[in-house]
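Reopening this one. Same input as before:
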Amino acid sequence: MPRPVIHQPDDVLDAVRDLVIEAGPRAVGIRAIAQRSGAPSGSLYHRFGSREELLAHAWLRAVKRFQDGFLRALGAPDPREAALGAVAWAVEFALASPDDTRLLLEHSRLALLQGEPQQPIAEALARINAPIVSAVGRLAAGLYGSEAPEAVERVFYAVIDLPVAVLRRHLHAGTLNDRTTRSLQSAVSALLATDDVNHIERNGNRDEP
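Same output, byte for byte:
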């Protein structure tokens, strides 16, 4: 019979995440993770392979938790409602999961990992943002009738770059609350205003002969 799993993977990954947040990536080693999670070092090596794998799993878990709701919001039929719903979800996620949010906002994948994880985790890291890129392209097409670089860049500003900056500032200041959603949605609406949509449409196929 297989040995029962005493220490759940999420408990271990919580320990990894919390150590990163409290002391930075360099403070995260197998011994520290074992002490924080209560899992023996041997079982960590057996289940995850290495420190790099543990950090990668913790980071990927936070990304996937965020992306689940974000992509669901971006899939709304009305493109403007999709954009506003996506930024509302970003605030909702940050309020409900501040630790995962801090991990993502304060520590990039490149900053976390000193080496390259082995397959298949390396493949998962390489493709993790592909659904977001595709969804932003579809949103640009819905808003402006074009996936031209100008249109896609504007949507990235609105639903990715601006919310990240706002959330980071409010989390650091301890001022994030439900009112942040309304302010952020107003800013996003202004950023997505279609005053030059005709310019975007005219230049949507500028590379074609």
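So the earlier flakiness isn't reproducible anymore. For the record, The two ends are 67 Å apart (CA to CA).
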